[in-house]
Amino acid sequence: MNQHGDVSADDSHPQRPANATGMHQILLALAATVAVAITAAGQSSTTVPEGMPVRVRLLQFISSETSQPGEVVRLEVFEDVVVKNLVVISRHTPVAGSITTAKAYRSLSSHWPWWTRPSLGKLAFTITETRSVDGRVLRLLGPIVGGNQPKKDPSLRWYHEGEVFDAIVVASAAGNSY
Fold first, then answer.
1. What mean pLDDT value characterizes the chain?
2. How many domains does the chain have?
3. Rounded to the nearest 5°, which phi and psi values hold at 154?
4. Hey, which residues does 167 pair with through a beta bridge?
5. Residue 74, Cβ neighbours under 10 Å: how many?
6. Which side of the chain, N or C, has fewer Cβ within a 10 Å radius?
7. 1, part of any domain
8. In contact, 129 and 140? CB cutoff 8 Å
9. 39 shares its domain with 101
10. C-alpha–C-alpha distance, residues 119 and 109, integer Å
11. How far apart (Å, rounded) are the C-alpha atoms in residues 72 and 159?
12. How far apart are CA 102 and CA 105, in angstroms?
């Protein structure tokens, strides 16, 4: 109200003191900090259980004709791994793997005896580990033999870039709690 008894627009919303605005900002910041702390605490109770499936994509061509045992195989996580609505392993996370068996196809020459057979190509690799979103090392077992491996020519063995394989979590190097 002004001195004449009229109500002005300024009088209907009294102004806050300057220190009240500062206090409001401090309370908002405190509330945000508490929310982040609660979220982080909730994540710490989530674990990556043993046996959790992880889909892995091959990032290179490998062949029984060119690969050597011990050679590194480049792979990545194909899709996010989620536990209790939290991503515990992110898509595109690098995955370690290596060639375990590589034997090239050998055909028979004309001077070999007729009772011998050609040596068929052999190729095998392992999927060994990846990292969780918080950087913990997770041991993997794979590829899991099953329906995702296509039928191939028995004389040569190969896998193309982009093929997807299944693995499972078998352990965490430093415990698997989050």
1. 76
2. 2
3. -65, -20
4. 54
5. 14
6. N
7. no
8. yes
9. no
10. 12
11. 14
12. 10
Q: Is residue 4 part of a domain?
A: no
CA distances (Å), 173 to each of 78, 98, 170, in order? 22, 19, 10
**pLDDT by residue (tens digit) across 81-91?**
999 999 999 99
Residues 18 and 87 reside in one and the same domain: no
Q: Tell whether the model's pLDDT for residue 120 goes beyond 70.
A: yes
Whether 97 and 69 have beta carbons less than 8 Å apart is answered as no
**CA 4 – CA 85 distance, rounded (Å):** 63
Q: Which residues span the domain enclosing 17?
A: 9-44
Confidence check: pLDDT of 73 > 80: yes
Q: Return all residues near 119 (Cβ < 8 A) that are at least 6 apart.
A: 103, 105, 106
pTM score = 0.64
Following DSSP, what letter does each residue of 78-131 receive, concatenated? Answer: -S-EEETTEEEE-TT-EEEEEEEEEE--BPPPTTS-TT---B--EEEEEEEEEE
Contact 174/137 with Cβ under 8 angstroms? yes
